[in-house]
Design brief:
By secondary structure, the chain is an alpha+beta fold. It has a domain of 108 residues: TATA-Binding Protein. 24% of the residues lie in helices and 36% in strands. Strand 1 and strand 2 form a beta hairpin.
């Protein structure tokens, strides 16, 4: 018997490997859920902030703006007006307030925590710095807890510190004028001068 010759079989393309585990699908699904949850959290946070934060800007009679921002975490109020009484410091006689420059009352209140009040005003006079220094030395007297004559910036500084309240008078010659910076910082609920 004669056998017929057998031809080799042509090669068969390999079958793609079968994935018996849905790991890739689960990873993609979890990633999609994380992205959706993060987007939802951002949306809810922005929605909450937009409804919980109240900002008010009011123009005062002299044209300066007062700003008030209230949030569930605290508040910030900025008023352009300061007075001798609110500063708790004397204003040099004849000195003029430098308009739109470093003069404001800022109240910062953190809900159920600290409260800080900063009052600052800048004045100038044509009197010599020595004359202005003698005025403040006489008026502040023994209240002064720290005194610096002509520091590295050329300023003469009087500092009064009692408890959680600090008051500062800073004098500096600028050209033919004397600049007077008055600052009062109060922490907590203390409001007395």
């Amino acid at each position: 018997m004669a056998t017929s010759p057998q031809f080799p079989r042509p090669p068969v393309a390999p079958q793609p490997p079968r994935s018996s585990s849905p790991v890739v699908a689960i990873v993609l699904l979890v990633l999609a859920l994380i992205i959706m949850a993060a987007g939802l959290a951002v949306y809810i946070g922005l929605h909450f902030i937009s409804h919980a934060v109240h900002m008010q800007v009011v123009q005062s009679d002299n044209g300066r703006k007062e700003v008030s921002i209230k949030t569930p975490l605290g508040s910030l109020d900025v008023h352009p007006e300061v007075s001798e009484a609110s500063l708790g410091l004397p204003i040099y006689p004849g000195a003029t307030r430098v308009k739109d420059h470093d003069s404001a009352t800022v109240n910062i209140h953190i809900a159920d925590e600290a409260q800080v009040r900063v009052l600052t005003a800048k004045f100038e006079t044509t009197d010599f710095c020595e004359k202005v220094r003698m005025f403040y030395q006489a008026r502040l007297g023994d209240q002064v807890t720290k005194y610096r004559e002509k520091d590295q910036e050329g300023k003469t500084v009087f500092e009064i510190k009692h408890g959680k309240q600090t008051k500062v008078v800073s004098l500096k010659t600028e050209g033919d004028k004397t600049e007077i910076d008055l600052v009062r910082v109060s922490e907590g609920r203390e409001e007395g001068n």
